[in-house]
Amino acid sequence: MTFAIHGLTVSRGVAIGRAVLVASSRVDVAHYFIDADQVEAEIARVRAGRDAVVEEIHRLQQNIAHMGPKEAPPELTALLDVHLMLLQDAELIGGVKHWITDRLYNGEWALTTQLEIIVRHFDEMEDAYLRERKADMEQICERILRAMKGAASPMVAHTSRAVRKASQQDLLLDDTVDVPLVLIAHDLSPADMLQFKQSVFAGFITDVGGKTSHTAIVARSMDIPAVVGARTSSQLVRQDDWVIIDGDAGVVIVDPSPIILAEYGFKQRQGELERGRLQRLLHTPAVTMDGEKVQLLANIELPEDAPAALKAGALGVGLFRSEFLFMGRQGRLPDEEEQYRAYRRAVESMQGLPVTIRTVDVGADKPLDDSVRDDAHLNPALGLRAIRWSLADPAMFLTQLRAILRAAAHGQVHLLVPMLAHAREIRQTLAHIDQARAMLDSKGVVHGPVKIGAMIEIPAAALSLSMFLKHFDFLSIGTNDLIQYTLAIDRADESVADLYDPLHPAVLRLVADTIAECRAQGKPVSVCGEMAGDVSLTRLLLGLGLRSFSMHPAQILAVKQEILRADTSKLAPWAQRVRTAEDPVLAMASA
Ligand code: PEP
Ligand code: MG
């Protein structure tokens, strides 16, 4: 039966595919397709993993046999018997074989997919004892996965096949054709999303998350349709259900009828045509009708994103979120050499165009590792985040600064500092930069000049601009956090998402004043939060005087189209009216 789930829009477009339900902790297993002639070998690989676990348990049982009841309580013996029994479970074995043989999933993916199905069955059981076996099943699967780690099969990523847009024909024909897959999880961390960048999924849906949560931001950068904050989607949708993601409306349609499929197939093709049309603007300079030049820059997460930024026509990188180099590494942070190589790769990829490297901004909804989510602090977004974290660990901060300064010898580098608010933090940050330079000098290591900028993303910063303008070469407005902190709305919490409002008069005032003050003092200013890539806000930001926008590469051409149609001499008085209106949304409508 067809039904719809409503969530929040993240990235535009339509995806149609089969649901793959994954617990977030299991997202970081590899997801790829194998070749048909690898099926037997892949099944054998899972079997070998399982056999290794069986052997491990047998060894444990033998050891236990020599122990007394104190060291080896009977419960442990019974538990091992249960685990051995579950390792032979027909539903597990049969399911894994099915996913490998019929869907050509790699072994790990097949195992976690089948585990999700079994876990659901356990959840539905009346019998409390049987329900508790769920944890045992999860344990043995985790152990098989671990055992398989040593025997990874060669990665054969048939991404193009998997993400190929299924035509309506495909969907109505044979079930066994390759169709896109849509990932559904309760939650995905930004680190999960990184794994995702190389994966085969054509879209994703999460139960939780806000529009500007970092998970949503990475999804936008991947330019695949996605919906977050879809509440109970991971419970309502079943493995392998057909789903449609309408990224523009933030709606998920489950088990669509042929008529609905046809409708969305049409919408999908329209979207593709529209994107194709925008390509014509690729080499057109971003200049308004009244001759104002606008700089369009890209936000990137990894050096590997830089070529896509160039390809999309970006005139530089306005925000390289360096923290993504630090995530999902089980606490082992990248050393100076590794960071230097990464920054240098980004700088060289941009072929002489500027690259703005932001110093690490972990914390809040960007934990270093999923396993170290910050539950210890009540308000991680107000805690030891971004520059506060860097200043709390000078050795780590200096390592990053040295790496950035060294990369600056290979091209134009701007160094951007997140979350500053206090004069003391500014002084300490600048002193660290001087110290990093001096350390390199003392060792005769080559480094280059950098322009130093601050993010304006805390209201306190926006309200003490003169202090920032005195110390920095440029400012970049982080509207995602500026909105969060001005309105006291957790940007990652879908339950208050309706209150997260870029057009609140207070937000507009802070943004407008920052732009105006920078312009008055001749200091470059850009917006690098999600507002910059939102085409519905392009005219307003232009009217407020903004001439530098940094956004996901996928948004650049659509924003450029708005710029080409704009006349800033007319937009300026209108934008001032919007800025001072009690209801800016209404005021915007009265052009
Ligand atoms: C912002 O806060 O607007 C920003 C660009 O930084 P991030 O989204 O990484 O916090
Ligand atoms: Mg921020």
What does this protein look like?
By secondary structure, this protein is an alpha/beta fold. The protein has 24 helices and 16 strands. The strands form 2 sheets. The protein has an 8-stranded mixed sheet. Strands 15-14-13-12-11-10-9-16 form an 8-stranded parallel sheet. Strand 12 (413-417), helix 16 (423-442) and strand 13 (450-456) form a beta-alpha-beta unit. Helix 4 (107-124) runs antiparallel to helix 5. It starts with a strand and ends with a helix. Residues 153-177 have low confidence and may be disordered. It binds phosphoenolpyruvate and magnesium ion. Residues 418, 457, 478, 480-481 line the site of magnesium ion. Magnesium ion is lined by residues 418, 457, 478, 480-481.
